[in-house]
Design goal:
By secondary structure, this protein is of the alpha/beta class. The chain has two domains: 119 residues, no CATH class; 159 residues, no CATH class. The chain has eleven helices and six strands. The chain is elongated, with a radius of gyration of 22 Å.
Length: 307
């Protein structure tokens, strides 16, 4: 599986790199730096492991390899980061259907580390099943099944509402202020500030309440939250009139993100709990994005898509 994914991943990175102007006075190109990192991520090994030629199993496409110190320095440069972003969004455009995106789904995924980890950026926070230390990935899936449309990383104690606001801001940047449609989320996102923030960027947040059917109380609610309640909890109608099914039918699509978040960890080399050498936000972000890119290549391979 790793060899098949690598044969598709290597030319994709090279193609994106060849579209950029060639840098002068560098021994290793940005493509080589990124490919070495992806080779380590694909095999669940540290970056230093991929800097040794005997760990490439005869698939080494160049004569030399950068040192771990060079990898650490170059992976933080803007040029390599932009190349990684190009590859990520190249996969996002593979299976995307052109036209208006009616529904997007948002959710978070905890990325736990050991409780005794010395990572000063990891935080204790609540996730499914208890309290953990680590980070949290916030993602928004649109039309493409390969990679998320928007992605953000935060500490474990960051709320889903704050992560949702970051995703909405990211969508607004990607679409130059023209993002629109419905945004499907779970009950943890049902707050007035998030509803108002989504509406300010042209999106209607659709999320159930923690206690459906209860009174909304006497406080002032955002009009968009009241609309979400009206769509998902339509009032009773006379027997001769059909009940509106718009809200429930739209919200049925929200279950897709559970599968989208589960797919990256359902194969060898996929997104599993963070290993001991993946600490600090820049390493966690590289590891997670690398795993999502590898999963996107796997989806392309399954469905016969060309990246």
């Amino acid at each position: 599986m790793e060899d098949e994914l690598w044969k598709r991943l290597y030319p994709l990175v090279q193609e994106e790199h060849n579209r950029r102007p060639r840098r002068k006075r560098v021994q290793f190109s940005d493509a080589i730096i990124l490919l070495v990192a992806l080779w380590a991520i694909l095999h669940d090994r540290p970056i230093s492991w991929a800097c040794r030629a005997d760990h490439w199993h005869g698939t080494l496409p160049w004569l030399g390899l950068p040192s771990p110190a060079t990898m650490s320095r170059r992976l933080r440069t803007l040029s390599v980061t932009l190349l990684l972003e190009q590859v990520f969004y190249r996969l996002g455009s593979v299976a995307a259907v052109s036209g208006f995106c009616l529904c997007r789904t948002i959710d978070s995924k905890p990325l736990a580390v050991g409780g005794f980890s010395k990572d000063r950026d990891a935080r204790w926070g609540y996730a499914t099943g208890g309290k953990y230390k680590g980070y949290k990935m916030f993602c928004c899936w649109g039309k493409a099944p390969t990679v998320p449309e928007a992605l953000s990383l935060g500490p474990m104690n960051q709320s889903d509402q704050a992560g949702g606001m970051m995703l909405i801001d990211r969508l607004d940047q990607l679409h130059c202020g023209n993002a629109s449609g419905y945004l499907l989320a779970d009950a943890a996102h049902d707050t007035n500030p998030l509803h108002a923030h989504a509406a300010a960027h042209g999106l209607q947040l659709l999320t159930p309440r923690k206690q459906p059917g209860s009174d909304v109380g006497h406080r002032t609610h955002a009009p968009q939250r009241l609309r979400s309640i009206a769509l998902l909890e339509p009032p009773p109608v006379p027997p001769k009139l059909p009940a509106s099914r718009l809200g429930p039918e739209l919200y049925r699509r929200r279950g897709e993100i559970e599968r989208d978040l589960g797919q990256p960890g359902n194969f060898g080399g996929g997104l599993q709990p963070l290993p001991a050498w993946v600490r600090r936000p820049h390493r966690v972000a590289l590891w997670v994005i690398g795993k999502l890119i590898i999963n996107g290549m796997r989806i392309c391979q399954i469905h016969g898509l060309t990246a």
